[in-house]
């Protein structure tokens, strides 16, 4: 096999710009020549690369699923062990839970859930094995964002939350720390930098005390199970919280500097296409909502749920794939340019879906429909430099990149979305979210004196190792410092504030130190001249 792998590599090196089809052709030819029992995998070829020249030329074309790092970070999703739902019984559409041996709201067959089961839901083993998998298929893992899945994390025992995050960080740090505090300190200079921690929660478990615990653990983003902000629908599906809980959670999280992802579920019992479209419009335009990102999870009928019983009795019918595609096309037409549509469906295998969207390429179907209408989605994901290049072959013109600012009222405060864009080619290079907190902000670091807070700073493009530059990449080209300087200028000159805070991930605190920021509770802050 080693001889065959070297022959594949040497043959590909002779091709000026090898494509994925070239890789497939050469693999089959060499496998036939050497009478191999199976065709070598890309990960096996990657492992056989020897020289820097080989890696520089072939890694990109051999790397599977380039979208995993095209946004500039590597996402590692891990599952908590099964815990009961924090309300007496799950919502009508919700599968899984401890009786099924899987976390609440999961089937156990989603990729992240399967990795959890394979590793007995041990956070350390899940992170380690995922990093090894991603490395094997050619992805850099210098910057890792941790996504903690498995239901409402704040509802789990405090000690378990602390231990879980500590062990995730231990895996990134390759050190068995004595405490969460030590793990956080080590994470600041670890070769694998943690650039974000995300947790999932219900709106009624995102009050001030829950948010304080999140901040203490290094959380930077929260996924909020909003589904459909309608009290009548909440009552029908047994949601056991209110629209007011959603509004309060959104404000508390933003005022604490956290980024917010709404989980939205079109097609719930009691809703309709017209109602769902109105909900998206309301979420995008009403200041009490306006999340930073959304995940769209069309309601599915799964066995073991109340929705399944209603479906069998012909009392409920979910949307078809075509109906969902039409709905999402309309959503993409109205989405503001400061929101990122992260997902449009869940990772549930089609055989488990009794009724609802069974096609796994819903996003591609939606993009095709938009293209037929001559339209381009304006969400962050569809405009970011890596995806524009990957999907449309569009490259930004560095001489045309300019700094743009959008202001909007949100959750009793003000948001300033500062972006670096090539507007002519509709390419987003990076952005910063600056918030002027509301008067209700509860954190002492924010209440101490008038200030602004940077909730997010992100420069897009293929992942670049910390401290290095790649000729084709857009990270580390200075756009981050330009966006940061503009946020500081707006804070001091336009609002007259002398203090600016940033909610920094553990692995980016050193970056902010270079610009004069110092530790301030869970934040970094700077006094402005």
Describe this structure in words.
This protein is an alpha/beta fold. Among the domains are: 2-62, no CATH class; 385-527, Aminopeptidase (3-Layer(aba) Sandwich), CATH 3.40.630. The protein contains 20 helices and 18 strands. Strands 1-4-5-6-7-8-10 form a seven-stranded parallel beta sheet. Strands 12-13-14-15-16-18-17 form a seven-stranded mixed beta sheet. It has a two-stranded antiparallel sheet with strand order 2-3. Strand 17 and strand 18 form a beta hairpin. The protein is globular, with a radius of gyration of 23 Å.
In short:
By secondary structure, this protein is α/β, with parallel strands linked by helices. The chain contains 20 helices and 18 strands.
How is the largest sheet built, in terms of strand order? 1-4-5-6-7-8-10
How many beta-strand runs?
Answer: 18
- Rg from C-alpha positions? 23 Å
Count helical runs: 20
Structural features:
single chain; alpha/beta; Aminopeptidase; 7-stranded parallel β-sheet; 7-stranded mixed β-sheet; 20 helices; 18 strands; 38% helix
Describe the protein's topology.
Elements: H1 2-13, H2 20-33, H3 42-48, H4 52-62, E1 74-79, E2 96-97, E3 102-104, H5 111-118, H6 123-136, E4 143-149, H7 158-173, H8 180-187, E5 193-201, H9 208-217, E6 221-227, H10 231-237, H11 243-255, E7 259-264, H12 273-285, E8 293-296, E9 301-302, H13 306-312, H14 321-334, E10 340-343, E11 353-355, H15 362-372, H16 380-383, H17 385-392, E12 402-410, E13 413-422, E14 427-436, H18 444-447, E15 451-459, H19 479-494, E16 499-502, H20 509-513, E17 518-520, E18 523-527
Parallel strand pairs: 1-4, 4-5, 5-6, 6-7, 7-8, 8-10, 15-16
Antiparallel strand pairs: 2-3, 9-11, 12-13, 13-14, 14-15, 16-18, 17-18
Helix pairs in contact: 1-2, 3-4, 6-7, 7-8, 12-14, 14-15
């Amino acid at each position: 096999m080693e001889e065959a792998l070297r022959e594949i590599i040497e043959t590909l090196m002779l091709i000026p710009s090898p494509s994925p089809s070239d890789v497939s052709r050469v693999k089959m030819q060499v496998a036939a020549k050497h009478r191999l029992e199976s065709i070598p995998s890309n990960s096996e070829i990657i492992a056989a690369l020897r020289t820097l020249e080989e890696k520089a030329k072939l890694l990109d074309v051999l790397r599977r699923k380039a979208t995993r790092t095209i946004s500039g970070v590597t996402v590692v999703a891990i599952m908590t062990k099964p815990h009961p739902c924090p309300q007496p019984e799950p919502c009508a559409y919700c599968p899984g839970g401890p009786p099924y041996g899987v976390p609440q709201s999961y089937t156990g067959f989603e990729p992240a859930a399967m990795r959890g089961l394979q590793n007995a839901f041990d956070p350390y083993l899940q992170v380690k094995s995922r990093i090894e998998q991603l490395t094997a298929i050619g992805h850099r893992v210098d910057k890792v964002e941790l996504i903690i899945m498995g239901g409402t994390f704040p509802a789990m025992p405090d000690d378990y939350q602390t231990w879980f995050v500590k062990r995730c960080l231990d895996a990134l740090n390759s050190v068995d720390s004595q405490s969460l505090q030590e793990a956080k300190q080590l994470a600041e200079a670890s070769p694998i930098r943690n650039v974000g921690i995300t947790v999932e929660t219900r709106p009624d478990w995102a009050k001030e005390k829950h948010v304080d615990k999140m901040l203490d653990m290094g959380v930077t983003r929260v996924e909020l199970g909003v589904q459909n902000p309608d009290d009548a629908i909440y009552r029908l599906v047994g949601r056991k919280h209110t629209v007011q809980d959603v509004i309060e959670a959104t404000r508390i999280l933003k005022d604490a500097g956290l980024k917010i992802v709404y989980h939205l579920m079109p097609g719930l019992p009691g809703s309709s296409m017209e109602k769902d479209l109105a909900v998206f419009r309301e979420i995008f335009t009403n200041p009490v909502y306006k999340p930073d990102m959304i995940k769209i999870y069309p309601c599915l009928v799964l066995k073991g749920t109340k929705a399944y019983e209603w479906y069998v009795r012909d009392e409920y019918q979910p949307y078809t794939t075509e109906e969902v595609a039409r709905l999402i096309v309309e959503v993409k037409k109205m989405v503001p340019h400061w929101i990122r549509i992260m997902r449009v469906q869940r990772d549930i295998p089609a055989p488990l879906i009794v009724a609802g969207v069974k096609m796994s390429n819903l996003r591609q179907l939606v993009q095709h429909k938009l293209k037929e209408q001559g339209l381009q989605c304006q969400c962050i994901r569809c405009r970011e430099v890596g995806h524009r290049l990957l999907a449309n072959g569009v490259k930004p013109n560095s001489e045309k990149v300019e700094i743009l600012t959008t202001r909007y009222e949100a959750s009793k405060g003000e948001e300033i979305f500062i972006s670096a864009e090539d507007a002519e080619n509709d390419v987003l290079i990076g952005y910063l979210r600056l918030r002027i907190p509301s008067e209700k902000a509860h954190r002492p670091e924010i209440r101490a004196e008038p200030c602004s807070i940077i909730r997010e700073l992100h420069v897009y493009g293929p992942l670049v190792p910390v401290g290095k530059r790649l000729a084709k990449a857009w990270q580390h080209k200075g756009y981050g410092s330009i966006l940061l300087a503009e946020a500081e200028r707006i804070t001091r000159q336009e609002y007259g504030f002398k203090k600016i805070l940033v909610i920094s991930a553990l692995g980016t605190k050193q970056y902010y130190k270079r610009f004069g920021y110092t530790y301030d509770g869970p934040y970094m802050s700077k006094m402005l001249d």
